[in-house]
Structures are given as structure tokens and as C-alpha cells.
Amino acid sequence: MSEKEKKVEQKISWKGWVALIILVIAFSGVLQKNPGPLAALDFANLNGQFGTIYENINFKGAGGVGAREGFAFTLTLIPTVMLALGFINVAESLGALKAAEKLFRPLLKPLLGIPGIAGLAFVSTFTSSDVGAVMTKDLVEKGEITDDERTIFVSYQYAASAVITNTFTCGAPLLPMALLPVGIIIVLEMIVKILGANIVRFILNSKAKKNRLGGKEYGTAK
Amino acid sequence: MAQQNNQDTAVVKKNIVEEFMVGCRKGFYIGVEQIAPAMVLGFVIIQFLQITGLLDILGKLVGPVMAIFGLPGEAIVALIAAFFAKTAGAAAAATLFTNGVIDAAQATILLPATITMGTLVGHYVRIVVVSDTNKKWHPLLLAIPIIDAAIVMLLTRLVLVFMG
Q1: Which of A112, A130, B74, B106 supports an S-S bond with B102, CB 3.0-4.6 Å?
Q2: Domain residue ranges of chain B, discontinuous segments joined by +
Q3: Residue A57's beta-bridge partner residues?
């Protein structure tokens, strides 16, 4: 067992699991229309509403265009981004990512064809583009994953990159009008990220097979 | 972020309230430093294209292709803007919505697409190059987010139809 593996094997506190579960519930929208106090766990409900200054129109007004409208629109988005990153930060500090790693670790081989050791890098890509990329390079240099596995893994990371953070920050302009809960949007993005990586996996595997049949040594090293 | 939490045992940890406020502050600065400039850019591009009439021409040109995804031709602007920066793409789509060019369902279809294929050049450096991926496969890697975006638009459209 490598040092890295030991590190990720450390036990996950119950807080990590609770934080992960609450985060998933909050962003999934399942409790949004709950009539009882559980509705308080929903992200959209906690995000609330702006007051209206005339009929259904909030302080941003209606009919704006151009740079001024872009700026006014930004003002309406900032609280959403603040609340989302506040939640994500708390969940991370409680160990939600470690809990997520435990869940995803056994799934990496069937989903992407990469070994479970890449689990920490995998969950890091939820919230950061750069950490995952650096860790991936590290994994290859330590010989934990092959060059082809890296290509597959990177094709997963590249699309949408830090999928959760980016959906909340970069996607912020579209969140107020989206008809689906943000959790569903993130799941859809994850699905196509995995699909896309499997296109790469298929291409690389068939190429490797062809090379083997041709009696050529297929380079897994750099 | 993740690795810092790995050595959490010995280090004095921030409490939950502090962590929450740190996250909020990060969100505020992302809003001011990243979202606001991209929103101004996105809204000005659309305004320019609309005043010059280029938006109509562009829309008619790519209309048949965009129809596959249940989108009007004008929606291509959001995808082109997303190519450079995810936020600009989402901002452009939001402008199209406020101008009545697309409806809420079409905005929902564009949301995961702008994220999936967005910031393609910037992230090429930050992810594909940094991770030192085999150069042989770089063209393939560049194509994947765009393919993903096309699939996610169809998928989102399907989910929306399914959920009424």
C-alpha cells in the first residue's frame, strides 16, 4: 500500500457523511416544495427572493440592455454565489469530499477504466480545476496510473472542469431562469463528462488492441 | 482545497461559521472580479450584435443546426462566447433570455452546455498541459468537451420534455 493510499484510507468522520448528504439534498431541490420545516434544507429556499419595488419587478428593474444591464444583473447573482460557496466551503471542511471519495473510489474502474487510487484526484475535480490536474500528473509520475489512463481521466476533467464550483459561479447568470434544480444540472454535466471520457477510453483501447495485434509494443509509458 | 484538509488533525481548524464566511467572501470576490466583467462583456456583445443586425443574420445562418437542440439560431452566440469564457457564455444566454430571444427551457438547455464546453482554451493549459497528457491525443481532448456539450443539450432537452 503506497503512502498516498494509506492517507486516503483514514477514517471519515460521521460529520463528513452528514455534510455530503445535506449538500446533495440542498442542491437537488427535492425539498424545495416540502410543506414542513424540512424545506429549510433546500438551497433555493435559503437563497430566497429579492423584494419587489413594483408589481413583480425587483430592484434590477425590467427592460435594461447593454453593459448597465450586465452589471445590474451581476448584483442579483452575487448572493447566490456567496451562499453556494459558503455551503461548499463548510461541507469541504467537515470532510464531505473525503466521504465522496469513499463512494466514488470503487466506481472509477467501471465508470472510467481508471484505478481507485485516482479517487482523491477525482473528487478534487468537483471543486477545483488545478488541483486535479496536478494530482493526475503526480499519479502518472509515481506509476500509479498509465499514460492512457491519464488521457482518459483528463478528458473527464477537461469538460466543465471544476464541475460543481463552475456551475454555481460561471453558470450563475442562468441559474435564476433554469427550470431544473442546480443539482440535476450538475448530474447531467457529470453524465456527459463520463460519456465523453468513455469515447476516449474506447478509442484508446481499440488503438491499443490494434497495436498489440500488429505485434507492436504499445507504449504505456511516456 | 482538498489537500489542506488532509492534515486537519493537528492544525487548529476554523469553526463552521468561519468556514462559511470564508466561502461567502470567496463568492463575493468571484462575483466582483470574474462574473461582473464577463457579464458586462456578454451583454455588450449581444447589444452590439443586435444594434448592427448581425444577430439576426447569424441566427438565420445556423438556425437549422441549432434546431436539433431545440434552440433558435441566435443561441450560437452563447456557445461561441462560452468557448472563450464559461461566464461570458452564460451571460450571453441570460441576455438572450431577457431580450425574449430564448425562453426559460432554452436557457436551461444552454446552462450545462456553456459550462461543459466553456473556457476551452484557458483550461487546455490549466488541465491538459499541466497534467502533462500525451501530445498525440491533444486534438481528441479538445474535441471531447464540444461533443459533451452537444450531448448534454440533447439530454437536457429530453429531461425537460420528460418533466413536462
Answers
A1: B106
A2: 15-162
A3: A54
